[in-house]
């Protein structure tokens, strides 16, 4: 997989590059600022881009803005965003812009190498990977949405794991239930959130976006 890394911390930037190259991935370019990252993406056409949220010159939202801009220039570009801590408005800015091929992880997750690599693979394959801590905080703020109030506690658990990017089998294993039970819960989630089988979107991602959209309105 061809990757572009945008991270202003030189130790983390080079550490990520070494880790990914050791896994036989092609790190086509690294960048320390958003402008160079966008140029590198245009030049190298990566399979996935990794962005730090806060980058020079102001270290506020340059990274997330660049990730959104990269997706605008190249629709569907898989993007994995790294943040030092949960920044809810930034998460919704990224995820509300489209479905599929998106991830938002806390930087501490990078140290859990297998989890990080698994998340990167899911994003590159067009899936989602949202840090469990981000999911927990988003759910806490989103329960005023009447659609989400329709969900049972177990259905909320399933939706949280869907948001992390887990498939049915992994959800069943995490919750210690059968695959059939997970399938039934997901079917109920779709029904309660008014997601029709005829919708031209990935309903798993759309279910997550329903509560992210509510958070955006509350912010």
Automatic annotation (TrEMBL):
Gene3D superfamilies: 3.40.50.2300. Residues 2-122 form the Response regulatory domain. This is Response regulator transcription factor. Coiled coil: none annotated. It comes from the Bacteria. Pfam families: GerE, Response_reg. Keywords: DNA-binding, Phosphoprotein, Transcription, Transcription regulation. Residues 144-215 form the HTH luxR-type domain. The modification 4-aspartylphosphate is found at residue 52.
């Amino acid at each position: 997989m061809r990757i572009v890394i945008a991270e202003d911390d030189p130790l983390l930037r080079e550490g990520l590059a070494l880790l990914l190259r050791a896994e036989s991935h092609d790190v086509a370019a690294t960048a320390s600022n958003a402008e160079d990252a966008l140029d590198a993406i245009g030049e190298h056409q990566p399979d996935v881009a990794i962005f730090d949220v806060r980058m020079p010159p102001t270290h506020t939202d340059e990274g997330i803005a660049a990730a959104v801009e990269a997706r605008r220039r190249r629709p569907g570009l898989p993007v994995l965003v790294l943040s030092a801590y949960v920044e809810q408005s930034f998460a919704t800015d990224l995820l509300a812009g489209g479905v599929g091929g998106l991830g938002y992880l806390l930087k501490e997750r990078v140290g859990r190498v297998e989890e990080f690599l698994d998340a990167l693979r899911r994003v590159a394959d067009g899936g989602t990977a949202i840090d469990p801590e981000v999911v927990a905080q988003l759910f806490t703020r989103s329960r005023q949405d009447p659609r989400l109030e329709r969900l049972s506690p177990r259905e909320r658990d399933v939706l949280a794991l869907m948001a992390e990017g887990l498939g049915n089998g992994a959800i069943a294993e995490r919750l210690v239930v059968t695959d059939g039970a997970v399938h039934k819960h997901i079917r109920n989630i779709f029904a309660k959130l008014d997601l029709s089988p005829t919708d031209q979107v990935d309903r798993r991602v759309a279910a997550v976006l329903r509560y992210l959209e509510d958070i955006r309105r509350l912010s």
